[in-house]
Amino acid sequence: MAQYKIAPTGFTNVDMSSANTPAWTVPSDGVSNSDVNTLMSNNNKDPLNYNEHANASAPDIGELPPNYFDISIVPNSAILHYNEVTPYTEPSRAETERKKEGVLSFDPLLDKNPDQLWLYFMTYLNEKPCLAVNIHGYHVEHYTTYEHHRSADGQCHTRAVHHTRNVTDFNFTIDLASYVTQQWWRVAVVPSKETIKAGQAVSFRDALEQYTRSEKNIKEIKCQKQLAGWNFQELRDKIRALIYSTGYRNHISISFPMENHRISARSSSKMSRFSNSTLVRVLCVISCLFLIFGPIYLCLRAAGSTRDQIVADYAMVAPIDTFLHFNSGMIANAVIGRSRDLYSAYFA
User: What's the pLDDT band for 276 if we cut at 50, 70, 90?
Assistant: First the structure.
């Protein structure tokens, strides 16, 4: 990749020298606006009372990333913070399967014992989710093909068929691991509509005990890891503005892929293991049996799962403008050099 020393035109970064910038931590509503970054402790136990100020503090749903769970509807008393948990002396011994999405266990150790299930989640909560930003620039190319066919009277005809395809100009990824805190910040159980209607508040421990008390052969409990502190739509817009400032005028797609963002446990029953077998799934797809058994299995698993969604927040360690301050040159160089490489984000 060609290396250029440039200052993108029409794009200015806030001077955020690390010597003069106080330690930034996640805002209480989980989403930052870079113009008004919030300073508070990572271990803050007293955010706004969401029951009294839900409308004022909850972020606009349009600003949240896909599949984001809003913890603002959870009472403060039901939120578990990292510094409230006694560190474990030994990690969980439950057998796991590791996938791109995270870890999954069918270990019978977790079926009936809430303490072992607690230890399992605590062990793998200490693995932070992987975050990256993928920046893809492309232009649309128009081309024509010709189809030949013979009519009923024996005449040969040629017909022009017009097509379009996307042609990649650059496609690079920046690893944002250095901008995600190593420890989780808080864990909460986002209540379902039924739980809210019943006026109940479910703690993390409550959810684990509900799962272990279930006698169903197919059941599942999972925790979704998510990132709090960045407005990803704001960052997407600023990266797009930076790229356009280099003179690039074609299409830009910006996404934020995550890995290791889920911790799951499923019952150890033969039925549960059998239904999750890769071989069984492939055979069902080939034979189209998934049209019959797929909905049945999903209904059974949903019926045996915890009713509410468990969510773990991991804070971003610096605001969006800090990331841009240290990485805008790299992004602009990659665009100009038409890069297709993987980079690590700079963080001073």
Answer: low
